[in-house]
Design brief:
The structure holds 2 protein chains of 2 kinds. Chain A is α/β, with parallel strands linked by helices. Chain A has helices at residues 60-67, 91-94, 130-134, 153-162, 180-187, 203-221; strands spanning 46-54, 73-80, 97-108, 113-121, 139-144, 166-171, 195-198. In chain A, helix 1 crosses helix 6. Chain B has a single domain (10-116), classed as Orthogonal Bundle (Arc Repressor Mutant, subunit A). In chain B, 42% of the residues lie in helices and 8% in strands. Classes of the chains: A alpha/beta, B mainly alpha. Chains A and B meet through strand 1, strand 2, strand 3, strand 4 and helix 3 of A and strand 2, helix 3 and helix 5 of B. Chain B: This is DUF742 domain-containing protein.
Chain lengths: 226, 118
């Protein structure tokens, strides 16, 4: 895996410096062999997207894995930056490309509907590809680690700018407990944006996070939030 | 200093797509479900063969990309060839691609039911 953006090898972020797996780290790489991938029902016809964004090591892949019916798969998209970084002696750089890796899982909701969950890096270059990859996304979960809240500021700014509805989920890594109000203040969250706690390793918590997002979307659509 | 772009054997990628670097249209979303309409035929490009085999059951574009180990944009080009020749059909997401357009409440209610039943 040559990508620098994926955190699939560090699903919990518990020990990025030592490379030791965190408590929820799977022993195998996230992307499994093709035989691992359960096919969709032949009636599947409508796929929906939800994006989990957050800083490196915050647990995006862990959250996707906890609720996905397949082991998370990894893929990438590239965008050639033609015309950028071009100057007299940088002809080589002129054809360089931005590569963004992301992983994903899925949940079959009924015979027709499938929900795809994408774990996506929140850093700057990723957003160049947002429109191409994530147009039509239902909404986003911003996964935060309270030890590194500033990592999510940029993602929240961009989601607001794109008009993509989102909720914030605190992945509980232990450490000092902050009140929801302290976190809201640090993230400058609007009052109607839900903030929930989760253990990204827990399937029940992962479900609860998604339900919180969809209920938030439903309130937005039906005008119960102003 | 910036990390040089990864030039992942570009010659091979160009060969796969006949030199094209982007799909003719935005016909495929990341989660468009692709279904094979025909079995692969002998002599067909191996990636096309792999796609037709994989898509005997509906398969999302992003899953095809992950399985083939190719960037999504390259897979979209391969798929547009197969679509143009009628070898596959595509089931597009029913959500709007317009930014800031909210989804249908009935869709959201179905999603909620599905999630609660997990």
């Amino acid at each position: 895996m040559a990508s620098a953006t994926s955190d699939t090898t560090d699903p919990t972020g518990a020990a990025p410096a030592t490379g030791l797996p965190g408590p929820a780290a799977a022993p195998a790489p996230a992307a499994g062999p093709p035989s691992d991938r359960t096919p969709l029902l032949s009636t599947a016809s409508n796929a929906l997207k939800v994006v989990v964004v957050g800083g490196f090591g915050v647990g995006k892949t862990t959250l996707v894995r906890s609720v996905s019916e397949i082991r998370p798969l990894n893929t990438e998209e590239t965008m050639t930056q033609a015309g950028q970084h071009v100057d007299d002696n940088s002809a080589v750089l002129a054809k360089s490309a931005t590569t963004v890796a992301f992983d994903f899982g899925r949940i079959s909701l009924n015979e027709e509907t499938v929900l795809y969950l994408f774990g996506a890096p929140g850093q700057e270059r990723f957003w160049f590809l947002w429109d191409r990859l994530f147009a039509g996304t239902l909404g986003a979960v911003v996964l935060v680690d309270t030890r590194r809240l500033a990592d999510s500021w940029y993602a929240i700014d961009r989601l607001e700018q794109h008009g993509t509805p989102f909720i914030v989920a605190r992945n509980d890594f232990g450490g000092p407990r902050y009140t929801h109000q302290e976190i809201r203040d640090a993230l400058d969250l609007l009052p109607h944006v839900p903030l929930v706690d989760c253990d990204a390793r827990s399937r029940e918590d992962g479900k609860a996070v998604l339900i919180a997002l969809v209920r938030h979307l439903h309130r937005l659509v039906t005008g119960q939030v102003h | 200093m910036r990390r040089p772009g990864r030039d992942d054997t570009p010659d091979r990628l160009y060969t796969l797509t006949g030199g094209r670097s982007r799909a003719d249209s935005d016909a495929f979303d990341l989660v468009t479900l692709v279904v094979s309409e025909f079995e692969p035929t002998p002599g067909m490009q191996s990636e096309h063969t792999a796609i037709l085999r994989m898509c005997r059951r509906p398969t999302a574009v992003v899953e095809i990309a992950a399985e083939l180990g190719l960037p999504v944009s390259i897979v979209k080009i391969l798929l547009s060839d197969l679509l143009a020749t009628g070898r596959i059909t595509a089931r597009h997401p029913q959500t709007s691609r317009q930014p800031a357009r909210l989804p249908d409440p009935t869709v959201l209610e179905q999603v909620l039911v599905g999630l609660r039943n997990l």
